[in-house]
Design goal:
Elements (H helix, E strand, L loop, with lengths): L7 H10 L2 E5 L8 H11 L3 E5 L5 E2 L2 E2 L13 E4 L6 H10 L4 E4 L6 H9 L3 E4 L3 H8 L6
Parallel strand pairs: 1-2, 1-5, 5-6, 6-7
Antiparallel strand pairs: 3-4
Length: 142
């Protein structure tokens, strides 16, 4: 893989400055990893914005059908979708001028990640935001 994630210091700085996270593919099912990660992010002090069609709300937050429907800006788009959906998600990130894109563990699409970077979006790929928060932000709060 030629893609390289930002250094740990840059990821830590990202986690410190973000407040509102659009979570694409956030499941309402508590047994799903996305649900547990979103719940933890709420506990860490972030506002989560579920992005999932056909769902009214997740974890007490109104759900939106897609990124372009969101009311107001987000600081980060966190993706829990299969790699083949990332191209469209990057299109939406560019359209809404998202400053950062996080592709969870197992979500790898190098061409889409590079296209997002070329558009000025910080990209973290194939990493778990929860695990990175726990390792990089110990002793701090969002």
């Amino acid at each position: 893989m030629s893609f390289r994630n930002p250094p740990a210091e840059e990821i830590r700085a990202l986690l410190q400055r973000i407040r509102r996270i659009a979570m694409v593919g956030l499941s309402p099912n508590p047994a799903r990893p996305s649900h547990g990660v979103a719940r933890a992010l709420q506990h860490f002090g972030y506002q989560i914005v579920p992005v999932r069609p056909a769902v009214d709300e997740v974890l007490g937050e109104k759900a939106w059908p897609d990124l372009r429907s969101l009311p107001g800006p987000v600081d980060l788009v966190d993706v829990f979708r299969a790699p083949e959906y990332v191209d469209k998600i990057v299109d939406d990130c560019i359209a809404i001028r998202a400053p950062a894109l996080w592709l969870q563990e197992g979500v790898v699409n190098e061409p889409a990640a590079e296209r997002a970077r070329q558009a000025g979006i910080m990209v973290v790929m194939d990493r778990c935001i929860y695990k990175d928060y726990r390792s990089l932000m110990s002793g701090t709060h969002a």
